[in-house]
Amino acid sequence: MNCKNCHNTLRDTQKFCDECGAKVIYNRLKPKIIAQQINEQFISIDNKFLLTFIDLFKTPETVIVGYIDGTRKKYIDVLQYFAIALTLAGIQVFLINTFFKDALNFNADFVHGLGNLPENQRHPMADFNSDFFTKYQGLIYILGVPVSALATWLVYFMFENKRFNFTEHLVINLYYSAQIIILTAFFSILFLVTGINYLIVSTILGLPTFIYLAYVLKKIFKEDFWNTFAKFLVVMFLYFIIYFVIIIVVFAVLFISGYLNI
């Protein structure tokens, strides 16, 4: 018998390939087999998803630095974890657009500060905000990762901490972003179900996400509070500068293409 993944020759009693580590599959796919796999990955107490989620709070350096150093079996792969996060974000957007459309109506009031306005007096940005950010939320999350990775890499490179290269900073920010997206999606759905305004939800979740980034950086780079805090402030400054430039470019392209009329 040969491994279906790397074609290495296997013994009949092997449960895992000794070459690539893949699990040896003997049974055909059936509903019971699918249910077992779902239970192993997402439901059971010792599943990888729950372990990854918890340890990214308890000891993020174990998950992230471990992955960078080559530990790839204990926790969910960084790209897979980010894909799960985007899936949950997609479910969040679907639920908002299907059952909680009124939750996004605050955009018009927030932009105008004048309450409900007639359709002909509405600022085009009011509809653009809710439409654009719900429709392209996943793309915004994806584009945000290299931006934050560039910010953290530049800051630590400037302060002569060259422990990780840019690709490894991508891994750090992918795990961080996935954790934040999962948390945000979960609590957004929970708060929306309980009737809390979406603007309040965003405000409540905003500050802890920044605090968590500082916590992750401190754990990974093992620096004292003040060094971490100073670098975190510079990271945030660079992040918003880079994002601001990108937003200006995007809006300019949308305006030139005729999608956005201001």
Automatic annotation (TrEMBL):
Pfam families: DUF3667, Zn_Ribbon_1. InterPro entries: DUF3667, Zinc_ribbon_dom. The chain crosses the membrane at residues 78-100, 138-159, 171-192, 198-217, 229-256. Residues 3-24 form the Zinc-ribbon domain. This is Zinc-ribbon domain-containing protein. The keyword Transmembrane helix applies. The keyword Membrane applies. Keywords: Membrane, Transmembrane, Transmembrane helix. Coiled coil: none annotated. It comes from Winogradskyella sediminis.
